[in-house]
Each structure stands twice: as C-alpha cells, then as structure tokens.
Amino acid sequence: MRILYHLPLSPAARKVRLVLAEKRLPFELRAEKTWERRPEYLALNPAGTVPTLVEDNGLTIPHSGAICEYLDEAYPDIGLIGRTFAERVEIRSVTAWFDERFTQEVSRNLLYEKIMKPAAGRGAPNATNLREGYAALRVHLAYISWLAETRKWLAGAHLSLADFAAAAQLSSLDFIGDVDWSIAPAAKDWYARIKSRPAFRPLLADRVSGVTPPPHYADLDF
Predict the structure, then answer these.
(1) Among candidate residues 74, 99, 126, the one where a domain is terminated
(2) Are both 30 and 123 inside the same structural domain?
(3) Which end of the chain is more exposed for a tag (fewer CB within 10 A), N or C?
(4) Which residues contact 23 (CB under 8 A, 6 or more apart)?
(5) Is the entire prediction scored with pTM above 0.90?
C-alpha cells in the first residue's frame, strides 16, 4: 500500500489526497508532526515538509508539485494536467498561483498562525499577520470568482489539478471558519461543485483535536 505522509490541514497534502482519490488510487495516510523533525522522516524528505508519497515499490516523492506531476504521468487514465500544450500551461499557471501566491499571502498568515504555530509551541498568533491574511483572502476569492464566472472550471473546460490546488487551500481555511463565502457567490458555487465529488468525501470527514469546523463544512448543499 502506498503511504502519504501528511498533516490534516496542510493544503499541499490535501491537494495530493484529492488527486489520489480522483484517480482512484488507494493509499494509507500517516500524520507527520513536521516540527518534531524526526530523523526517520528527514531521511525520506530532507526538507521535513509534508506531503511525502512512498509508493509500493519504495519510490519516495517529496513535495506536492513533484507528487502530482508524477501521479499524472504514472497513472494517466484520469488526466488532470491537460491534453494540449495550451491546456497544460494554463493548468500549471493557475496551480502555481495557489501553491505559491495563495500560500504566501493567505495560508501562512492564517493557517500557520492559528493552527501550525500553536501546535509547534511557537507562541500565539500574530495579529498583524492575521489582518494581512484576511485582506489577501478577499482578493483571492475575487480572483476565484472571476475564473469561475468565465470558465467551466478554474483553468478551462475540464476539471484539473488547478481546481484541486485551490480547493485544498479553501477547504483548510473553511475548516477553521475563515472563509466568508457571502462575498464571493461564484467562488462558493464552484466550491460546492467540487466538494460534492466523491474524491472530496474523506476531507469532509477530517477532524482535528481542538478545532470544530462550522456546520456547513461537510454540508454538500452548503
């Protein structure tokens, strides 16, 4: 059985979980407290981050981007990175927006401050970072709404890795009640569609000690 090392609210790990589930690839989840810097885990992934995927044959793949590219090449029956050069460019570009810019501007200011930082014993959340995170989230929700209004899916006509990258970020924030869906109806409609997919069900069943998600988190009808 392939193994995915993760943290429940890690957007990067959630993205890989969604891709594995969409491709119907069985896997075992193992939670990894990255702040403990376990030598056994560092031997698998010297960066000490999650996710890390270990295949049945022992192939070890760190970093969500590398994992998703590998999965799309190794298991192409359900492709998520496009069919043409133009599609692949757009999917990778939108995916990078969420993997990099959204992470830097939103998740590091909200998820890290409110969840990861206290769990690692690094003190209370920084109020300035929280304010910046909430302000940036409004901008990103407007961008998602624009994409959802102009395309069937975020990167074009087909469901793709870009949708899972965005949904992974938003699902983690939604779990802690930080997404004001009322300001972005188009983004809300898109998210309702993607969270209704079978691949999303394990994420909706997640529970984290000390954190109670809002009632709508697991509600497929929002």
Answers:
(1) 74
(2) no
(3) N
(4) 71, 75, 77, 78, 80
(5) yes
